[in-house]
Design goal:
Mean pLDDT of chain B: 83
Radius of gyration of chain A: 22 Å
Order of helices and strands of chain B: HHHHHHHHHHHHHH
Distance between the termini of chain B: 33 Å
Radius of gyration of chain B: 24 Å
Number of strands of chain B: 0
Largest sheet of chain B: none
Oligomer: heterodimer
Order of helices and strands of chain A: HEHEHEHHEEEEHHHHHEHEEHHEHHHH
Mean pLDDT of chain A: 87
Strand content of chain B: under 5%
Chain lengths: 414, 325
C-alpha cells in the first residue's frame, strides 16, 4: 500500500464518521417481525459461505423474510465492520469475533441482548462471557472453539508413550520421548513469536492458574502463575523441543503428517483439515484434553451474533438469532460446518453426544476460559505476544518480559 | 510495494526540453482567449477535480487535522469527542522505540535496496539491449513479469524458496553439505531476504525505463567512442551512464519513494517479525491505525513519513540533477 492509500483510508474513516453525526441515530419504531422485510447479515470465513444454505431454509419457513448474507474475509472483517459502524451502515445481524465485541460494544453500535429470550444457562459459560461487556450482554454465542492436544498415536507407540499426557510434566517427558525414541524432529509445536502467539500460550497460562486480565478487569499478566507458565513455555525452546524459528503462515498439519511434529494444540477445524488433506494418517492420531498444571484449562474462542443498534428490523433479527443459536439450529449448523455448538443442549443428540472425540472438546469447553471483553484487546494481546517472543528467542527472562507487558497493559485496560 | 503506479513518461519528467517553453506559450494564449474555452476546459477537468478533491485533498487535510487529536476507536461514532492534543502525537513518536526501529528498518531498506535495484535494473537493460540477440523479448518479459505479479502469488513462491526446512535454497544447500540460514525467521536475515525480494520485484520497472533511455542514445555517439578505442567499461562510464542520467534520476527517485513506503513485503512475508526486525514505517502505521485504532497517532506517522519522503526527494533532485549541468 502506498502512502496516499494509507492516508486516504485513515481519513475516509473520519470522513464517514463525520457524515454519521449528520444523520444521527434512527432508533425508535422498527418493523414488526411478521412484516415483509429483508434482513442483512454479515458473516466471516466458512460461516459466511455456509450461512447462505441455512438462510434459504429459513426463508422457506418465514415467507415474509428475505435474508441477505454477505460473506466477509476474516482478514478484512475488522476494518469493514469499523467503517460500517462509522458510516452507520452496519447490517441488521453480524457475526462478532470474540476479540471484537468489547470494541464495538464500547462504540455503542450494538443492541443489548434481550436476556429473557436468550438465557445465560443455555450456553457454555466462557461463550456467554465473550458476548458480554461492562456488565451487559451484546452478543448471543453462536459457536465456540477451544484448543486441545493433537498427538500421533503411532509414533507414541514407538516412543513408548502409553497414554496421552495428562499433566504438564508428562507433556514435557512425552515431547522428549518422541524426539529421542521415535526420531521426530520436534517434540511439541507451539508458536515461538509473531502475531497471536498468545493463542498458543493460553493453554499454559490458564492451566497454571494465570490470566492476562482478571475478572475484575485488572491486568495480572506478571502474576507468579503467569511467570511459571511462561518459563515452562520458554523451556521447550531452550531444550530444542520446539522450533524456535518464527515462520509466518506456518501450517502445522503438514509437519504433523510427515511426523516431524508429533504434538500440537489445535482447534476443532483441524480435524477436518487432517481428514481431508492427510487421509494416510487417519487412525494414527488422537485428541486429548490440555495437560493439567493446576487444572486443565484451555482458551475459549468463537463468535457471537450481534444485532446493530441502528437496525430497523430488530424484532425479525432477534428471531433469526434465536433460530441460529437454538439447540436445533445449532445441531444443524454443526452438521454443515463442524463448528462446535455454543448451546449446550445441542450436544445431547447425534454425533455430538456419542463420539468420544467430540467428548474431549465438550469437556474442554466446560472449563475453557475467555479473555474478558476489552475495547483494546488486540493491542493488549500484542503486548503479550512481544513478551512471549522475547522469552522464546532467549532475550529476556519470563519475569522481566511479563513485568514489562504488565506495565504496558495496565494503561490499556479499562 | 509496486512502482508501476508512477507517471509513465520518464524523460519528460526530468528533461529540460524545449517543450516546456512551448507549453507556457500555449498557456498564455489560453488565458487570453474566450472564456468559453475556459469553460470547456473546466468542464472536462471537473470529474477529475471532484474525484481529486474527495479522494485526495479531503483525506490529506483530514489526516493532518486528525494527527493533532487522540482519535481512537470510540471516536468512530463520536468523532467530535476526539480531543485536541497539539503536537503530543509527534513528540510521542520520537520517544517510541518501535517507531524509531521502524524508521531505522525503512532506512536500511532504502539504503541497500535502492542502489541494488538501480544497478541491477540498468545491467539487465544493457544486457537485453545489446547482449542477448536471441529470445530478447522472452527475457524482457521474464524480467518484467515480477512487476505485474500480485504480491500474494509472489509470497507463495518466495516462501517456498526461503523455507528453512524444505525450501529451494535449503534443499540446494543441503545437497552440497551446507546449512542454509533461516531466512525469514532470523533477525539478521529477514531484512536482507525482503530486500532481495523487493529488488527482484522492482528491477523490471527500472529495466524498462532504462531500455527506453538506451534506445534514445544515438548510435553515432557509441560509434565515435568505439573509433576512439573505448572499451565496454569506458563506454558504460563515459557514454551510457551520463546520457541516461535523466532516466536514472527518475528511476532513483521513484524507487526511493517506493521503498520508503514499503509495506507489502513485510506484511505478507514476516508481519514485521521476528522481533520487529522487519517492521517498516508503513507497516507500523497500518498496525497502529487499523489494528489498534490509534488513528491520531497513525496520522501523525503518515505526516512524518510524508515529510521524510519530501525531504529526500528534493535532496535527490538537487544533488543528482545539478551534476548533469
Amino acid at each position: 500500500m502506498n502512502r496516499a492509500v494509507a492516508t486516504g483510508s485513515i481519513a475516509l474513516t473520519l470522513a464517514s464518521a463525520l457524515t454519521l453525526t449528520a444523520c444521527g441515530g434512527s432508533g425508535g419504531a422498527g418493523v414488526a417481525a411478521d412484516a415483509k422485510q429483508t434482513l442483512t447479515v454479515w458473516a466471516m470465513g466458512t460461516e459466511g459461505e455456509k450461512l447462505g444454505d441455512v438462510a434459504k431454509e429459513y426463508e422457506k419457513a418465514h415467507s415474509n423474510i428475505k435474508v441477505k448474507i454477505t460473506p466477509i474475509g476474516w482478514d478484512v472483517a475488522h476494518q469493514k465492520l469499523v467503517a460500517a459502524a462509522a458510516a452507520g451502515k452496519l447490517p441488521d445481524v453480524m457475526q462478532m469475533g470474540g476479540s471484537y465485541l468489547g470494541e464495538f460494544a464500547d462504540m455503542g453500535v450494538l443492541e443489548p441482548v434481550d436476556t429473557k429470550t436468550f438465557r445465560e444457562g443455555d450456553f457454555f459459560p466462557a461463550a456467554w462471557q465473550q458476548g458480554s461487556y461492562d456488565g451487559k450482554t451484546y452478543g448471543v454465542p453462536w459457536y465456540v472453539d477451544t484448543r486441545v492436544l493433537f498427538y500421533r498415536t503411532d509414533l507414541a507407540a514407538k516412543a513408548g508413550i502409553k497414554k496421552a499426557p495428562a499433566t504438564m510434566a508428562e507433556l514435557r517427558s512425552a515431547a522428549e520421548a518422541y524426539q529421542n525414541k521415535a526420531d521426530t524432529k520436534w517434540g511439541l509445536s507451539i508458536q515461538p513469536g509473531g502475531l497471536d502467539t498468545v493463542q498458543s500460550f493460553y493453554q499454559f497460562l490458564y492451566s497454571a492458574g494465570g490470566a492476562i486480565i482478571d475478572d475484575n478487569g485488572k491486568a495480572v499478566v506478571n502474576s507468579d502463575a503467569a511467570v511459571k507458565a511462561l518459563e515452562n513455555y520458554g523451556s521447550y525452546f531452550d531444550k530444542g523441543l520446539s522450533e524456535k524459528s518464527v515462520r509466518p503462515g506456518y501450517d502445522v498439519t503438514k509437519d504433523f503428517n510427515s511426523g516431524a511434529v508429533p504434538m500440537f494444540f489445535g482447534g476443532p477445524w483441524i480435524t477436518n483439515l487432517l481428514d481431508e488433506n492427510y487421509p494416510d494418517i487417519k487412525g494414527k492420531w488422537a485428541v486429548a484434553p490440555v495437560p493439567a498444571d493446576e487444572a486443565s484449562v484451555s482458551m475459549a474462542g468463537g463468535s457471537s451474533l450481534a444485532v446493530s443498534a441502528d437496525s430497523d428490523h430488530k424484532a425479525a433479527a432477534k428471531e433469526l438469532v434465536s433460530y441460529l443459536t437454538g439447540a436445533k439450529g445449532q445441531a444443524d449448523w454443526f452438521e454443515r460446518t463442524n463448528d462446535l455448538p455454543a448451546n449446550t443442549a445441542a450436544w445431547k443428540t447425534g454425533e455430538l453426544a456419542t463420539d468420544p472425540t467430540m467428548q474431549v472438546w465438550r469437556k474442554q469447553m466446560d472449563t475453557a476460559r475467555a479473555t474478558p471483553s476489552q475495547p483494546k484487546l488486540t493491542e493488549i494481546t500484542s503486548k503479550v505476544d512481544t513478551a512471549i517472543e522475547s522469552v522464546t528467542q532467549g532475550k529476556s527472562s519470563a519475569k522481566a518480559a511479563l513485568d514489562k507487558a504488565q506495565s504496558e497493559i495496565e494503561s490499556l485496560v479499562q | 510495494m509496486s512502482l508501476t503506479t508512477g507517471p509513465a513518461v520518464p524523460q519528460a519528467a526530468v528533461d529540460k526540453s524545449p517543450d516546456s517553453a512551448g507549453n507556457s506559450g500555449r498557456a498564455r494564449r489560453g488565458r487570453r482567449s474566450l472564456s468559453k474555452h475556459n469553460l470547456t476546459g473546466w468542464l472536462f477537468s471537473t470529474p477529475f477535480l471532484v474525484l481529486f478533491g474527495v479522494f485526495m485533498l479531503f483525506p490529506i487535510v483530514a489526516t493532518l487535522l486528525m494527527s493533532f487529536t487522540d482519535f481512537g476507536a470510540r471516536n468512530v461514532t463520536r468523532p467530535l469527542e476526539a480531543e485536541f492534543v497539539g503536537l503530543d502525537n509527534y513528540t510521542q513518536l520520537f520517544q517510541d522505540d518501535k517507531f524509531l526501529k521502524a524508521l531505522f528498518n525503512t532506512a536500511y531498506f532504502v539504503v541497500v535496496g535502492v542502489p541494488a535495484t538501480i544497478v541491477l535494473g540498468l545491467l539487465a537493460a544493457i544486457l537485453l539491449n545489446n547482449g542477448i540477440d536471441r529470445a530478447r523479448t522472452l527475457f524482457r518479459v521474464g524480467f518484467y513479469a515480477p512487476v505485474v505479479t500480485t504480491i500474494v502469488a509472489v509470497a507463495v513462491v518466495w516462501r517456498f524458496v526461503l523455507d528453512p526446512s524444505d525450501g529451494l535454497i535449503a534443499s540446494l544447500a543441503s545437497e552440497v553439505g551446507l546449512t542454509a540460514p533461516d531466512f525469514l525467521g532470523s533477525e539478521t536475515w529477514a531484512m536482507p531476504s525482503l530486500i532481495t525480494m523487493a529488488v527482484w520485484r522492482n528491477l523490471g520497472t527500472v529495466m524498462v525505463l532504462c531500455i527506453a533511455g538506451l534506445q534514445a542514445i544515438p548510435a553515432e555517439v557509441r560509434e565515435a567512442a568505439r573509433l576512439d578505442g573505448a572499451g565496454a567499461w569506458q563506454e558504460l562510464r563515459g557514454i551510457t551512464v551520463p546520457l541516461l542520467r535523466p532516466t536514472l534520476l527518475y528511476a532513483t527517485v521513484i524507487t526511493t519513494i517506493g521503498y520508503l513506503n514499503v509495506f507489502e513485503e513485510p506484511f505478507v512475508m514476516t508481519q514485521g517479525g521476528p522481533s520487529d526486525s522487519t517492521l517498516t514505517v508503513s507497516l507500523d502505521m497500518y498496525r497502529e491505525g487499523f489494528n489498534f485504532f490509534h488513528m491520531g497517532y497513525a496520522s501523525a506517522m503518515a505526516y512524518v513519513l510524508f515529510v521524510v519522503i519530501m525531504g529526500i526527494t528534493v535532496l535527490q533532485l538537487r544533488l543528482l540533477k545539478d551534476n548533469t549541468r
